[in-house]
Amino acid sequence: QKEVEQDPGPLSVPEGAIVSLNCTYSNSAFQYFMWYRQYSRKGPELLMYTYSSGNKEDGRFTAQVDKSSKYISLFIRDSQPSDSATYLCAMNSGGYQKVTFGTGTKLQVIP
Amino acid sequence: KAGVTQTPRYLIKTRGQQVTLSCSPISGHRSVSWYQQTPGQGLQFLFEYFSETQRNKGNFPGRFSGRQFSNSRSEMNVSTLELGDSALYLCASSLVQDQTDTQYFGPGTRLTVL
User: Fold this and answer.
1) Which of A8, A61, A105, B7 is deepest in the core (most CB within 10 A)?
2) What are the tens digits of pLDDT across the range B7-24?
3) Looking at CA atoms only, how far is residue B2 from chain A in angstroms?
4) Phi-psi group of A70: left, alpha or beta (phi > 0 → left; psi -120 to 50 → alpha; rest → beta)
5) How far is the C-alpha of B63 from the C-alpha of B71, rounded, in Å?
6) Which of A12, A1, A27, A5 is nearest to A111 (CA)?
7) Cβ-based contacts of B44 with chain A (< 8 Å)
8) If you count residue pairs, one on A and one on B, with CB atoms under 8 Å apart, how many are there?
9) What is the pLDDT of residue A52?
10) CB A91 within 8 A of CB A70
11) Secondary structure element (H or E) that encloses residue B93, with its range
12) What is the pLDDT of residue A13?
């Protein structure tokens, strides 16, 4: 079993929809959670970072962490075609420990 | 400020050969991490270097090795290439690489092994 599970999609939504992306994890030592966005032929770029349970909002993006259920989510409001990309969840246990990534969910927002 | 650069961007090799990939981190960044990205496995951590020392290593065979130079530039080497080594190899740099530190990724080197 992988430490981090993420539905690969693809997920196709109409422009303006609310998108929900999810990851589950098995390692209870994970304390820090990140979401990356990766456009085609580019490296991942950090979108959101959080270390506590609850919600963190940044513009149209909201990251949600539920440590008791070992479940994290990224919500995108008013989705735009420019949001079409692969979204990767990532997490680590702190310090300079390695970051473990999910396999990514490919999102397509249709105009 | 220039981003993370990786060279070459594309590489085609045959089984049994060896390859060296290069990564130049953002100026001032001292931590460099390497990842292998494949469609089935996603991003898998290879190793991380800080101030020329390997601090962390993933679960890859000894054919995969790396090093970091005094100017923080890093190289990774894969010897005796196998078909399964075909992947996108990503380098990421950060100031010190801890939980408060953002990793900045390069565009990757696409390696194809024939």
Assistant:
1) A105
2) 999 999 999 999 999 999
3) 15
4) left
5) 25
6) A12
7) 101
8) 59
9) 81
10) no
11) strand B87-94
12) 96
